[in-house]
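Student: Hello, beginner here. Can you help me understand the protein record under this note? Any guidance would be welcome.
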Amino acid sequence: MSASLTYAYFPGCVAQGACRELHLSTHELTQALGIKLVELKKASCCGSGTFKEDSWLLEDTVNARNIALAEQLNLPLLTHCSTCQGVIGRVDERLKEFHNSNPAYVQQVNHLLEQQGCSPYQGSTEVKHLLWALVSDYGLAEIQKRVTHKLSGLRCASFYGCYLLRAQKMLAFDDPYQPESMENLFRAIAATPVYYGGRAQCCGWPLSSYATTESFKMAGARIKDAIAAGADCLVTPCPLCHLNLDSRQPEVEKVIGEKLGLPVLHLPQLVALALGISPKKLGLDLHVVSTHPVLEKLGL
């Protein structure tokens, strides 16, 4: 582990609004680990993958600006949202490729930024999800040393979703179809990983605005698979997945005609519990699906 880890923090929209407990738990976790976050307060929404439906140039320019804000600080951009990672990381990857293959396009992006008084995109930093930072930068052995409340007996089903794993062409951190990063992190805090078919598939969120029934059926299928595998909870690194799997779980139950009741935790909430941070500070009382069964199993 580096003696001091500092990141330009891109919190995203959902974690600061609809699911603020996710933003709070990220701060609690990083403070406990001694990781410094410099919040990019002037950053804008990444677009959640919708900007490109109108214009690739729009998506690239908006997110080139977000990356440039981190570059100004000479820091890697850190997000705790799989969707933001997928979108911003893909833009960064594409523009870095274009520096050699299509420099005129990068110049066009930077010209648009200049017109708005923004710093140009340089391609000089990384876009990194909190999961990768914990596993690769901080290190599982170091996290294990800081555990004060082992999560022994808690069966955790990861839900990576799709953006985190497959939005970028080159992913150095994990296998896009058979990932292990979250499972390895679970083991480091003494939780038991649960493997099931839907852990690397889509939660249905991208469909939710125009095909709500289909979206909820997808979410229901993922939750049911995890329950069938014996999970005590789902753990996701994505606020948008959290919305579809936790906040909308009662609606999902109505669509599929079955009771589910599976707690959904955001990744930093789970890790922070193992570091002894109180459930109240992590906003675990703010979830739609009660997290009480998880806390009871852990004696919290």
